[in-house]
Amino acid sequence: MPELRPGMQHLFLRDEDLRLGIELLFYAYRDFTAEPDRMLAEIGLGRAHHRVVYFVGRYPGIVVGDLLGILRITKQSLSRVLGELIRKGYIVQKRGAVDRRQRRLELTETGAALERTLTENQRKRIAAAYRIAGAGAVDGFRRVMTQLIDERDRPKVAESPASAPPPRASTGARRA
Predict the structure, then answer these.
(1) Which one, of 48, 96, 94, 56, lies nearest residue 72 by Cα?
(2) Segment 36-47, tens digit of pLDDT
(3) Does 12-158 carry CATH code 3.30.465.10?
(4) Kind and range of the H or E element at 94?
(5) pLDDT tens digit string along 118-170?
(6) How far is the C-alpha of 33 from the C-alpha of 119, rounded, in Å?
(7) pTM for the full model?
(8) 72: alpha, beta or left, given left = phi > 0 and alpha = psi -120 to 50?
(9) Which of helix, strand or coil describes residue 107?
(10) Residue 121 to residue 113: CA distance in whole angstroms
(11) Domain ranges within the chain, ordered by starting residue
């Protein structure tokens, strides 16, 4: 695969350089999701289930509305996926302590084990790439990926979950 030209300035990117970036994202996403997709298929789940399990694991106690905002899917799409995860024993719903209308989501022990298994493969892939690329490239990658995210969603990934509450819902739903 061709490398980007040394000293390339962002204002003078050729169409071919931009297309290479698009192609790299396609290949990387394909390979990043391949193993988790295979594991999920074995238990009758798919990528939409993976996203829900990941974010519920990342933000224990997240309310359904906030999860909808992160995933930008319709309530109907989330309801189908979430219902299946609850029936299969991966997620539990709890009423909010203050607002009883809230539905807070948490992984069960089985759900946490699934999330760890799915994420471990991806964590290793990211860690290996970071080690090979080096600190400067990691910083550059984070800056590029952050700029690819819609501006209103950037604050959601700016802090670690340990220091921040679950991301609040934003508008703009789409199908899973």
Answers:
(1) 48
(2) 999 999 999 999
(3) no
(4) strand 91-95
(5) 999 999 999 999 999 999 999 999 999 999 999 998 888 865 555 455 666 54
(6) 10
(7) 0.81
(8) left
(9) strand
(10) 13
(11) 12-158
